[in-house]
Amino acid sequence: MSALYNGGAYGAVAIDQEDQGPKVTVRKVGSDKVDFVLQSCSLGFANAVRRAVIAEIPTVAIDLVDINTNSSVLPDEFLAHRLGLIPLHSRGVADNLNYTRNCEYCDDHCDRCSVTLRLRAKCTDEHNILKVFASHLTRVDDRADSIGQPVIRDPNGEGPLILKLRHNQEIDFTCIAKKGLAKEHAKWAPTAAVGFEYDPLNKLKHTSYWFEKDPIEEWPVDKVNAEWEDADEQADVANNPDAQPSAFFFDLEGVGVLEPDEIVEGGVKALQLKLTEILQSLNPGQDGVNGMNGVDAGDDYEPMDQQPYDAGGYGGYGATGGYGAYQSGY
Ligand SMILES: [Zn+2]
Asked: Where is the DNA-directed RNA polymerase RpoA/D/Rpb3-type domain (predicted)?
């Protein structure tokens, strides 16, 4: 049970000084993971936070690939798909990069709504193959921040392997990375996994366990979470059909494009933006809601048919992989 988390700049999950509003307790935090408990809120709110951190936080990923040369053994579309999935640093994307669909400075893409990366490699060694890594992607603009730089974590500083070239094989790609959301395509997901649990002892009976012989043995209880809950508070839920869960246990793992604290703050901010939009729709004449003046509610997701997705005029490949499935399945 470590220090309370103050909810960052947004304050929606502020320290619960007067037993009012949601309370967040961070139990464990690492470079990519955070384990926290959310209390004093409804199941619906906790689940909204879960969904927001999975799919509502803007990040940057390669979206268009202009293939100038490709004499490798891999087809263009395959490489475009691989490039789309390479994690790119996304700190500050929410505030410092426009969505191309909302960008007022361009029709296709520009420095305010995209980051350009170049990938050029040729194998000149007759006897050895050349491995091309994400670290070979070079940003070709003069941004001062790290947005769009490949995330390199391995000890050799190489990043994910993209392809291998044999003698005289060559590639020359120009990649346009854009801001997007995971609900458009999974390549923009900031999280790899979000564990979510409440009522670890299943006293509320919200869950019916499927089992072969023994549900207790086949569904092990998370002891840390089970001990966290106040046994007395939950003791009589069997006799109270209106009993509510008292704590929600999150175990969030990022993919490296954002720090865990940015992911949680980003999720809360995404929820705030949505609520602001609803309130502003209900009161169209009102500027700002509940002290949230200046929130750019327009900087959010728009339906698929309004997006310049896979812009054909650019002549590049949509680095989306399976975009057909995305369109039909959305
Ligand atoms: Zn633009």
From this structure: 33-281
Q: What's the pLDDT at 327?
A: 35
pLDDT confidence bin for 205, thresholds 50/70/90: confident
**59-70 and 170-180 beta bridge pairing:** antiparallel
Please determine, looking at this structure, whether the domain spanning 60-185 carries the CATH number 2.170.120.12. yes
d(CA 201, CA 231): 10
From the candidate CATH numbers 3.30.70.890, 3.10.450.50, 3.30.1360.10, 3.40.50.720, the one assigned to the domain spanning 23-55+191-280 = 3.30.1360.10
Residue 162 has pLDDT above 60, yes or no: yes
In this structure, which long-range contacts are made by residues 185-188, counting pairs with CB atoms below 8 Å and at least 24 apart in sequence?
Answer: 185/61, 185/84, 185/320, 185/323, 185/326, 187/61, 187/62, 187/84, 187/85, 187/319, 187/320, 187/321, 188/58, 188/59, 188/60, 188/61
- Give yes or no for a contact between 105 and 112, defined as CB atoms under 8 angstroms apart: yes
Rounded to 10°, the helix 260-282/43-55 angle is 110
The strand pairing partners of 13, in sequence order, are none
Identify the pLDDT of residue 232: 62
Ligand 1: distance of its center to the CA of 187 in Å?
20
Q: How far is the CA of 97 from the centre of ligand 1 (A)?
A: 9
Specify burial of residue 53 (Cβ count, 10 A radius: 0-12, 13-18, 19+): buried
Tell me how far the alpha carbon of residue 60 lies from the centroid of ligand 1, in angstroms. 14
